[in-house]
Amino acid sequence: MTPATSTHWTAIWLSFLTGVVAAIAVTKASPALLAMKQDLQLSIVQIGWLMSSVAVATVLLGIIAGSLSRQYGPKKVLQVALGVIFVASSFGLLIESANQLLASRIIEGVGIIFISVSAPTLISHLSKPSDTGLSMGVWALWMPVGSVLVFLLSPFILDYFSWQWLWASPAIAALPLMFFLRLIPDLDLHLSKQHSDTTTSFDRTGAIFLAFVFICFTGIFFSFITYLTAYLIHNYELSTSKALLVTTILPICIIPGNLISGFLIHKGLTPTQMMAYPAIAIIAIMSIMFNAEYTVPIGLMLLACFGFFLGMIPTGIFAQAPRMAAKPADIGRVMGIIVTGQGIGILLAPPLAGYLISEQQQWSNLYPLLILLAILIVILMKPVTRHQITLYAKPE
Question: Looking at residue 269, which CATH number applies to its domain?
Fold first, then answer.
């Protein structure tokens, strides 16, 4: 299979929508946090583990998902993934205990990891090399768009239904998309021609370094957003609905960061620059947020800036991924390694953040963790650049 000569934008947007379904499944735990805590008598650390347990499958199956995508084609894997999420999320309507909640969460994670690997792999195949920055900018929207939808709709769902209906929401979103995926070009036949070529043409070490970048990014994002609503309620005495509305500022501002980062990569900046520079800006913003005194409007502006620069990093990650493969058939394996890093970040960050915050609500304890993760992103850019392969990603 050779790189695409034209970019199939309709198929790319459909692939992106599968990511939105996965993002809804990942982030739905945060707005449901207080209702679940009261209904199931959970501690703040247990909530963190419930948030992160969705990533167990990502850690265990990330590399396998990349191999399955290569063997059967990313489109088929996406269809299976949506089916898994539909079944696991629908079970949310029947949940009555923490154990049932945890089981459904882990099963959902299987569908999420398949989407996390196969959707960007498919997008890479559907994009001509010069459009990779733009198409990966679109894909990077999956988490913030899904998060915004969850935080905007959750007050209505929680007020008029229950947190169980919020837990089942990904199934409702997945059902119609399972049929629309038929519009995506079938690349399986082209991929099968690669099976006779057993040579692996990607830099595994470079992919692992990029996976560490993803650990840092997801660590920052999920340790922050998981408890942001609870922080606003505790410190500013906001109602749950108002706190959820304010929380949406973070993912909403991530969206323009994703898009602008993709545009800048398309215009010539390297993906590593679009990871390092925003990380430096985040260090400065967090230093102000945690150590200075400011008014509420300034605080909201800082939160918006934090989201904007944070949003640039995943676009850089996904745009860098094809540069680790010398041929398109190996992009899925690279994505599998990289997304494993995403899973590790999601798995460890929320419970670690919950432990640092503790039941005494010590929110300032998050600062050293967030700063460390941002600094590591900057440090990792040198080895990531050193190990990249530019044969496939070379601009036209």
Answer: 1.20.1250.20
